[in-house]
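Q: How do we represent a protein-ligand complex in a form that can be generated cell by cell?
A: Start from the inputs.
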Amino acid sequence: MALLTILGTSCGNDTEQSPEWKLLETDTLQATVETEPVSAPVDEDAADDPALWINFSSPAASFVIGSNKKAGIHVYDLKGHEKAFAPIGDINNVDVRYRFPMGDRTIDLVGGSNRSHNTLSLLELHPVTGELTQLDHDSLVSGVSEVYGFCFYHSKATGQHYAFINGKDGTIEQWKLEAAGDSAITGSVVRTLTLDSQPEGMVADDINGILFAGEEERGIWKFPAEPGNSSEGAFIPNSGEENPAIRFDIEGITLYSQNDTSGYLIASSQGNNSFAVFDRQEPHAYITSFTIDPGKIDGAEETDGIDITNVGLNDTFPAGVFVVQDGFNYNGTKKVSQNFKLVDVRRMLYLVNPDASLAPDYIPYNLD
Ligand code: CA
Ligand code: CA
Ligand code: CA
Ligand code: CA
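Then emit the C-alpha cells for the protein with calcium ion bound:
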C-alpha cells in the first residue's frame, strides 16, 4: 500500500509530468534549430531580418526567409538548410504576404528594402523550391533617403495589399501595390508618416489594421494602417529606455497572435541582447523580457530582425516558431558567419506566461 501511495504521489508530481519544453532550468530560452550561415565573411554584419512563410497545405514544408544586407535574400527549410538564394542587392529587412492577385492567379510575395537601388524589392516565392522571381524590376524607387525598414500590410477591410518602407531620416512611406500584367508589380506612395529619428523594425497587424514601428533610440509607435487614417502615431509606454529592461537599439518587431485580438508584441532590445514582450491589446502593457542563451546551439546576441508564428509546423515546432537573427554565430568555439536561430514557441510562451494559450491552428492573415 505504501508503495502505491508513493507511486500515486509521484504520478501527480508536476515535474515528472511536465513535457521537456516546460523544464526551463533558468529564465532563458535556447534555440533548437539554426540556419546555415549566410554567405558573407565571418566578421561581416550581413544577416539582418528573417520572415516566416507558412505552407498552409503542408506546414512542415514552410520556409524561413532571411535577408543578407550585403547580397540578397536566402530561403531556408525548417531544418535550416538553404533552399534558394536571390542575389538581388543589399536587402535590409524582409517580409511575407499571401494571396497577392496577379492576373487570374494569386501568388505569395516576399518583399524587402533594397539598399543597392533604394527600392522596394518584390518577389514571387515558389511554394515548393523556394526560388524567388523578381517582380518589381528595380522600378519602385523610394523617396526616403537610404531605405531601411520594410513590412507588408494586407488590409482585411478592403483586401488591398500595401508595403511600408522607412528611411534613416524618420520618414515612413506607405505604398499601394498592384499587379501590372502577369509578371510585374507596380506601386505608388499613398501616405507618408514621420518619426523624429531613425526607425527600422516594423510589423503590421492585418486583422486589426495597425502598423507598429520601432524608432531605434526612442521606442515603439503605432499608427492606424489604412491610407485614409490619421498619420498621428501613439507611443507605446515602457517601450524605450524609461523601461530598465530595454537598451537601444529597438530593432526587429513581431506579433504573436492567439486569435483575432489577443497575443503579444515582441521587440528585439539589441543593446542588452534581450527580447521585450508587450500585450498586443491596448494599452500594450510591458509584460517581461527574455534572452536566448547557449544550449546545444549558441545563443542569440545583438539581434536585428525577428519573426514569429503561432501556426503549428512540424514535430519540432508543433505550436509555431520564433526566429531571430544572431549577430555572433559560433560553431562550438569557432566564430562563423551570421545566421538565424529558431526557438520553440511553446518554451517562449511558457516563460512569458505559464497560462498563455497556444493557437497552432489559428491563421493571423487575411487569406480571402
Ligand atoms: Ca547587426
Ligand atoms: Ca538598426
Ligand atoms: Ca537591422
Ligand atoms: Ca550567437
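The CA atoms of residues 41 and 257 lie 36 Å apart. Residues 298-301, 326, 328-330 surround calcium ion (ligand 4) (CB under 6 Å).
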